[in-house]
Each structure stands twice: as C-alpha cells, then as structure tokens.
Amino acid sequence: MTAVDDRPQTRDHAQMSLELFEQLATDAERGEEGLRFEFLGGKLGVQPMPDSVHAAMVSWLVRQCMQQKPHWDLMTGLGLKVETYREGRAVPDGALVPEDHFLGGPGVAWAEPDGVLMTVEVTSYDRDTNQRDRIDKPRAYAEAGIPVFLLIGCDSGDVTVHSKPVDGRYRDRHTVAFGEKVALPEPVGMHVDTQRLVDLGQSGRG
C-alpha cells in the first residue's frame, strides 16, 4: 500500500458560481448533446457520454456487485456533491450504496455523499482523462469522505483501488493489471476477478 497525495499544489479561483454550474448541468441533461457536466476544483468539466467499451466495463462491475452484494446497488448517472464543504459536483460512473439508500430523500439533482461506500470511474481516451480521473476525482471523493474509490484504466490496462480517506486524500492505493484479482477493502469487502476486463480492453483498442 502506498500513501499518495492527490491534492493540487494550488487552487485557482472558481470559473463560475456553483449556482450557475448547476443550471448549465440541468440544461445539458435536458438537451440532446449527450454531455455530462462536472464542477471540480472550481472548474467546469464537460465529458462525452461513455462509449460501448466504457459502458460494458461498468455493466461488468454491476454484475459483480449483484452477485456478491445483492442488497447493495451500484448506481450509474448519479450526481454527487463532493470536495470539502461539498463545493464540487461529480457524476461518477458508479456509486455503490446500500439498497434503496437514496429513496425517500428530497429528490435533489445532486445527492449528498453520506452513505456512499464506493465510487467508480472508467478512464476514457480523451486528453483530459489523466487529470480528471487520476488527480481531480480521487481528491474530490477523498475530501467527501467516500471510503473507497475504484479506477478502471481503459488506457493503462489496470485497476487501482484507493482507500482510507484522511485529510482530503486517500492514504492507500493499490494497482493490479487487468486479469488479476483485486480486493476491495471494507466497507465494500469484495474480491473481484478482472479477467473479463482483458477482453474488453482489447476490444476497445481494436
């Protein structure tokens, strides 16, 4: 296990207010452009909708969770409040929560991260994926106190587990190559064989 510091050296001033970002994100969701808006480190981020390989990797993990944790839900497309003081907004590829965790709530567009056991991101092949998925997202999720962050690296052929958030960063990080088994620590408590990701990763490069 390796302690890592995902916090940026400096923070730029916010490009826009949180209220303006949320309005833009709502308008984009209603449109037909197929975009996802996020707000991390005071900066607007725009992501294209996932391609078929990206979606297949998320679906694979959904099945793993259903088999091992049938009373938990790996939710997709859920907007979360993240970062210190909940000033960021992110839409993880997956958010693992106890079954019906968000039912009965206020029905807001951006949910509180309390009770989220793990977030999941699958990297893309765009130029921003390294900054977004390997630097900004781990920091944002750690600051929100989410216990585990799982990063599936389409571009690198590996899986990285971040855990033990302390003072806005994940103290532990463990990486395995596609095809190896990976342990997801408590409170997730799962062991996952990633062999299927080998085939999916190769199809993405083809």
Features:
disordered N terminus, alpha+beta, hydrolase, single chain, Uma2, tt1808, chain A, 4 helices, two-stranded antiparallel sheet, 206 residues, six-stranded mixed β-sheet, 12 strands, endonuclease activity
Describe it for me?
The chain has helices at residues 18-30, 52-68, 129-143, 195-205, and strands at residues 35-40, 43-48, 72-75, 80-82, 88-90, 94-98, 118-122, 148-153, 158-166, 169-177, 181-184, 190-193. It is of the alpha+beta class and 206 residues long. The protein has one domain (51-205): tt1808, chain A (Alpha-Beta Complex), CATH 3.90.1570.10. Strand 4 and strand 5 (88-90) form a beta hairpin. The radius of gyration is 16 Å and the shape is globular. 37% of the residues are buried. This is Putative restriction endonuclease. One of its GO terms (molecular function) is endonuclease activity. Keywords: Endonuclease, Hydrolase, Nuclease. Residues 19-189 form the Putative restriction endonuclease domain.
